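ok new one. same drill as before - structure tokens go in, u give me an amino acid for every spot. 192 of them this time. try not to just spam alanines like last time pls lmao
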């Protein structure tokens, strides 16, 4: 069973629809027991960091997520909230990744929105995916490069397009909106 974390933030339905296209059943839930029993957990996110973190805390999900032992995938804001802190709303994150999340400098259009190239793959999630592939991004804040970085994108400056630490995986781009390559990434995650 695949659990998609429900916390009043994010693109949970589009993630669930992407899984349906892969013929994979999932449940959208905030139930601790269901999340803990799931084979895989997806933590999607769209929205503002501080209000989203408040929603997680109200449900106790901020304490649950870092303790999960199965593969967990954070998407977009989900990835950013898995980090140490976020400049958006001066938000303290879950601290899974020891990384700061910063606002893009206003040297180009912010938010970074649309298709962009990723490279420097360092994860089995990129199996059967070519370097310099294009994926779909929508974000004003970015995760710094670190030892947890598993792919890099360059917009205004190089940043972490994806991260991995232990059983935690994260993507700044939206695999559910990234066509065939996004579907392959989700499929690779489901095969872990």
């Amino acid at each position: 069973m695949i659990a998609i974390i429900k916390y009043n933030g994010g693109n949970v339905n589009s993630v669930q629809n992407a899984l349906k296209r892969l013929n994979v059943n999932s449940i959208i839930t905030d139930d601790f027991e269901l999340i803990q029993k799931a084979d895989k957990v997806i933590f999607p996110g769209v929205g503002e960091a501080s209000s989203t973190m408040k929603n997680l805390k109200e449900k106790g999900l901020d304490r649950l997520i870092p303790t999960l032992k199965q593969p967990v995938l954070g998407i977009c804001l989900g990835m950013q909230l898995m980090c140490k802190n976020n400049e958006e709303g001066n938000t303290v994150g879950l601290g899974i990744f020891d990384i700061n999340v910063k606002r893009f400098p206003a040297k180009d259009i912010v938010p970074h929105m649309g298709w962009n190239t990723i490279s420097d793959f360092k994860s089995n999630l990129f199996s059967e995916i070519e370097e310099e592939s294009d994926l779909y991004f929508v974000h004003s804040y970015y995760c710094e490069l670190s030892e947890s970085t598993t792919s890099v994108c360059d917009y205004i400056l190089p940043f972490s397009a994806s991260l991995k630490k232990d059983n935690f995986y994260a993507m700044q781009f939206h695999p559910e909106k990234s066509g065939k390559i996004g579907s392959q990434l989700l499929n690779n995650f489901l095969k872990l």
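The CA atoms of residues 114 and 137 lie 5 Å apart. and btw The radius of gyration is 15 Å.
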